[in-house]
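Thread: sanity check for a docking pose with pyridoxal-5'-phosphate

Original post by kr_44:
Hi all, I'm comparing my docking run against an independent structure prediction. Below are the sequence and the ligand SMILES. Could someone generate the full complex and paste the C-alpha cells? I mainly care about where the ligand ends up relative to the chain.
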Amino acid sequence: MIPLSIPNLSGNEWKYIKDCLDTNWVSSVGNYVDAFENSVASFTGAKHAVATSNGTTALHLSLLLAGITQGDKVIVPNLTFVASVNAIRHAGAEPILVDVDESNWQMDLSLLEEYLADHSNSPGIKAIMPVHVLGNMLDIERLIRIAELHKMVLVEDSTESLGTTFKGKAAGTFGLLGCLSFNGNKIITTGGGGMIITSDSDLAREAKHLSTQAKADTLEYYHDQVGYNYRLVNLLAAMGVAQMEQLPGFLKRKNEVAEFYTHELSSIKGLSFMQNTPGVNPNNWLFTIRHSRAVELCDHLNAKGIQCRKLWVPMNRLPMFEDYTYLSNGDVAGRLYESCVSLPCSTSITDKQLNVILVKIRAFLNT
Ligand SMILES: *Cc1c(COP(=O)(O)O)cnc(C)c1O
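Reply from moderator J.T.:
Ran it for you. Here is the predicted complex with pyridoxal-5'-phosphate included:
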C-alpha cells in the first residue's frame, strides 16, 4: 500500500514531546508554543505568529479580527476544502463563491474584477479570502490591487501553502492576516493545529487574547469579551518545532517528486497539470493531474493499493452552501473536480514507489 500523503516524523518529535511530559508542561502555555510561533514567524518573514488549535479556528479568528460580522459577505473560491467556507459561516458571514482559473486552479481574478465592477456599491462585501489551493497561488499583487480598489480586507487561507512564495515573499504574508494548518496531511503536522500570521502587532495581541477565552487578568478570571478556547497545546507545539526543523528538507523532496511526475507523465496524451502562476515558487503540497479518465484512474489505483484522491466537491454543490451566489465561468471548478486526481507524494515516498506508480498510470492511460 502506498499512501497519498502521510506525516514524516523522523526528526526530534519524540525528544521534544518527551521533554513536555518530563517537565509536566503539556497544556496551553509553555516554551514550545513560543518556539513554534517564533520558528514559523521567522521562516515566513511574518512579524507575528499566534498558534491555534487548528486551521479552521485560525480562519474563524482571523475573520473576526478583520472585522467580519453577521450578514457581511466574503469572497472565496468555489474550489477549496470545506473549512474555508465553514469559517466564513462561523463568523456569521455569507460566502460569495468564485469559479477558478482553468490554468492555475485558483480563484478567477478576471471574473472577480467583472463582478466587483458591477457591484461596486454593495456595502456588505467586506473581505476576500484567497485559498492557495494545492500550494499554488494566484497573482496576489493583482488581487491586492482589486482589494484596495474596492476597500476590502484580505484574509489568506494559506493552510495548504506553508513554504510557497510569490516573488520571494511567503504565502500568508500578503493579507491583513494569513492562516496555516498543521493537520495530518499538510506539509508539516502537529496532528492537529493551526497558526495565524500577521505583521500587525495589535491584531496579533488580539488573536492571542481572543483564543485564550479573552482572559484580561493574569491572576483573576476576568474576561472582557466572549472569547474562544482556540489555543494550541505545548505538547503539540513541541511536535511543530521538530517539524519546522525539517521543513526545508520536506520542501526539497516535494519538489523532486513533483518534477519526477511532471517529467515522466507529460508525454501522456490528454494529461495536464496545474500551472504555477508566474512568480510563484510552490511547496508542491499535493501533486495532482488532470485527465478525462482521472476518476477511473483514481478507482483503479486505489484498488491496487496506491492511494489516490479526487479533489474536493465544489462548494456550490454542498447542501449548506448551494443557495449562495456562485460566479461561474462555465463551472471550471466542477470540471476540475470531475477530471483531477492527486497522486501519492509523501515526503518519505521512495523512488522505487514512484516508479511503481508511474508504470501503473502509463499502463492504464495508454490503453
Ligand atoms: C486543511 C485546510 C483547512 C483547515 O485546516 P484544519 O487544520 O484541518 O482545520 C482550511 N482550508 C483549507 C483549504 C485546507 O486545506
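The longest strand covers residues 48-52. Hope that helps with the comparison, let us know if your pose agrees.
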